[in-house]
Amino acid sequence: MTDPQIIALHGTAMSVVLERAGNDAPVWRHWGARIASMPLPLADGRSRTTFALDIDQPPAVVPTFGNGGFGPSALLAHRDGCDFVQQFDTSDIEPTVNGVTIHLHDSVARLTLEQSLTIDPASDVLTLSARLTNTGDTPLDLLWLAAGTLPLAPDSAAIHSFTGRHNAEFVATIEPMPKQRWRRENRRGLTGHAGPPGVFVATDGATMHQGAVFAAQLAWSGNHLIEVARSDDGDWTLMLGEWLAPGEIRLAPGESYRTPDVLATWSVAGHNGATQNFHAAVRARGPWAKGQMPPRKVHINSWEGFYFDHDAAQVMALADRAAALGVERFVLDDGWFKGRCDDRRALGDWTPDPVKYPDGLGPLAAHVSGLGMDFGLWVEPEMVNSDSDLYRAHPEWALAIDGRTPPTARHQLVLDLGREAVRDHLFAALDRLLTDLPIAYLKWDHNRDLAPAGGGDGRAGYHAQVLGTYALIDRLRTAHPDVEIEACAGGGGRIDAGIATRTHRFWTSDNIDAVSRTDIQRGYLAFMPPERMGSHVGTTPAHATGRSQSMAFRCATALTGHFGVELDPATLSTTDAATLTEWMGHYKALRETLHNGRVWRGSGCDGLLWQAHGEPSDMVLLVTRLAPPTLGRPQPLRLPMLADVASLRVTLLAVAAATIRTPHQMPLFAAMRDEGVDFGGDWLANVGLPIPALQGESAALFQLRR
Ligand code: DGJ
Fold it and tell me: Is the pTM of this model over 0.90?
């Protein structure tokens, strides 16, 4: 910061530049490419517009409402109907490590707002958050506080976001920039099946591989609001924050509200560049004990094999079969606790079912450990069935509004995690399990939206619910730092950078159909790194869709994430068991590369999809074909990220298809399968990698090494 009027933060390829605006909040000058030179004062070059106030209000880092700001506001608040106007009369800039905190004070509305901006040069991710404090002597009602308000480039062309539902997460949606406003609002009380609260804004001509892309995601597991708006002046603004229910946040004198963090990034390397920055930022935020991610162990999960139908002897036999296949972690899913014979009862009673497990879970856990596998257990702590001992003892602990019957979902209600007594009770129950049993892993589920999230005081409790859950997980992690946690919410209903700081894996979707999973996982990878992406080989036909795919294709589709198996190996033919073992071997051999580098997603001619993991000098490439080809011969696949690599040896590790046909035996592919074939990086980037003919629902797995 050389010019005292200019606040400049620099990453490796990205810069953020603000200009002080008297006593009011600084105004935006730039977010995008790294810029070394500093701008001339904004006022010198800012043209006037007609029918405007005599005070100028350029896009501010915290735009406010009521005193000339007619565009989107970062803050909406009032004091019993008054003080609905905010304007800051002091603005102090406090330098922080790689960032600034801007302290803004409004002495008329009697509030202070701290806006923090921190840039991480390693990831080129800017983290923003805001804190509002009521400095008055009467309550202040907060309607909205953006965690971050960001400017978008004038040539912004399209909004890339996701929608979704249970069993169909991450449905990619591309919309042109709106004439005035684009908004995504989530009021489910939970992140939702569309994936993280985030968005990508592509500038004109940007692709997966090149061109400027802006992206931001909110690190929050509850309600959210994302807005792209254009002011009448023509400035684009992107805002993200927690969506607040009516009356939800009322600040008593001296009280504060802090927003979640926003992770914002810009890249000139297209969507893949922005995605790689997100992955780096999520990785930097944790959650590994001792700071180091261990190799991601192969899972088996009991759910689709057994559902609620547990029998201790059979479950042990499943563990035997899993260990024989090479599985490294055994997760006992729903159905193990007292009275849980279906989804109508028992949530809340976290002790082993005495009928299914007469000697408790100790013998099973010991058996699993004896086989050399980790033992993992499913829980759904935030939920309760009305048919449970917990609910009979504490009906008042469920979220509800007096005089209204709370709607059940999957026959269950939600516990009020805003209450300390509830959190203490759940901590004690989970702590007991983790202390009594050698549990290395918890699958933490959450199978419904909140409706209504009425706290004990009759007021909206969405915000408190998220904080309560975070506090419970944090407390458990402090007590049991080596236990890994999987975030699941009916599949991918709680995938976000907030819960990602405290959990180690996401269950991406309950839909394990490999064709559906291809798109779901590509959407997931837009925000989150692959090593957290639970990806299982399911049974056939797939339970969620009724479709069938070959074992090899199911394995190839699961390969790039955190690999697991969700079937009973006893149901497999000898050939399928051998194929599964073979692909598990590929996974174990490749997981270091799959999970520690960057990810590129791309597409080729005639419907080919590809993704590459690692670094250009050493990467794994998976090429997938979903629909049968429409062209007679496969066209070469261009891999733009390899342009600067001198030479790479390409090895064809496997072709995953229902039936392997002769084209794979062509001399080039035979050589690729044997010792590998050398290609120049510029050839692979500009002409392309020859691809064997692939049927619909098949994949080819390559390794590329210098
Ligand atoms: C929903 C999850 O997504 C499934 O994997 C399974 O754990 C069930 N809940 C159990 O009830």
Answer: yes
